[in-house]
Amino acid sequence: MRSVGGLAALFLLLGIAGPWLAPHDPTQINIAHRLSPPGAEWLLGTDALGRDIVSRLLHGARWSLGLAFVISVAGLCIGTLVGLVAALGGRLADWALMRTTDTFLAFPDLVAAVVIAGVLGAGTGSLIFALTVTGWMRYARVARAVGVSLHSRGYVVQARLAGLWPAAIAFWHYLPSLLSSLMVVWTGMFARAVLGISALGFLGFGVQPPSPEWGTMLLDARIHMRSTPLQMLWPGLAVVGCVLAINLTGDALRDRLAEKDGHR
């Protein structure tokens, strides 16, 4: 788990400190050095406009990981709220909210995100909205399931009999029990958000030029895929490596939490 967690932490560190580590301006056009191969000055070469690929990857990490963090946290807050209201709000609220959740889950999230982004138009705001709207449901299912399992616990029953408000019960008694399960779900959804941002960027609905983002870099390099395939390789490896590291960290975290629960 340490090695996998260290790799995920490295990607997160690059997302935070990447712009300060970049050797060149990622948006500086230099036609004289367009499509340069990897070398001493350009470690991974340059793109079709002569921009340094290393610098664009490092700046792109902030866009990809930063937006993924915002999207996954927004989905976490919305989904947890929906799940807790369903667990505490009675049968009618539970039925209505869970049927709504099931309806959203019935559509493939990436396809739905593409449709929403296409209707709203390309841009960062549309990207965040589309991926948040299609990413809160798993949190809601987990929050509702854990909430229902806690409903008959003695300390929860006593809190209700004492007249404690449902919001206070949710905050003091439900959320602490939810945190570990939600953290595992969050790591998976964070990785899905990185993948979704890159996919929408590749389709032209994400972060708009000249801002560097991994999916947009893949889109720009597609035209030169045959002549200079390395242009697509580097951002592709960044996306795959980041998503894989975060998913493996989530799997290791899930196993560790299951181990702890087994020893109780």
Q: Quick one: biggest sheet?
A: none
Order of helices and strands: HHHHHHHHHH
> Structural class of the secondary elements?
mainly alpha
Q: What proportion of the residues form beta strands (DSSP E)?
A: under 5%
Radius of gyration using CA atoms only: 22 Å
Estimate the helix proportion, in percent: over 70%
* Number of contiguous helices: 10
Low-confidence stretches: none
Distance between the termini: 21 Å
- State the CATH class: Mainly Alpha
Q: How confident is the prediction overall: mean pLDDT?
A: 85
Form type: elongated
| CATH homology superfamily | MetI-like
Counting structural domains, the number is 1
Which fold does the CATH topology refer to? MetI-like fold
CATH architecture term: Orthogonal Bundle
Describe the oligomeric state of these chains in a short phrase: single chain
| Strands, total number | 0
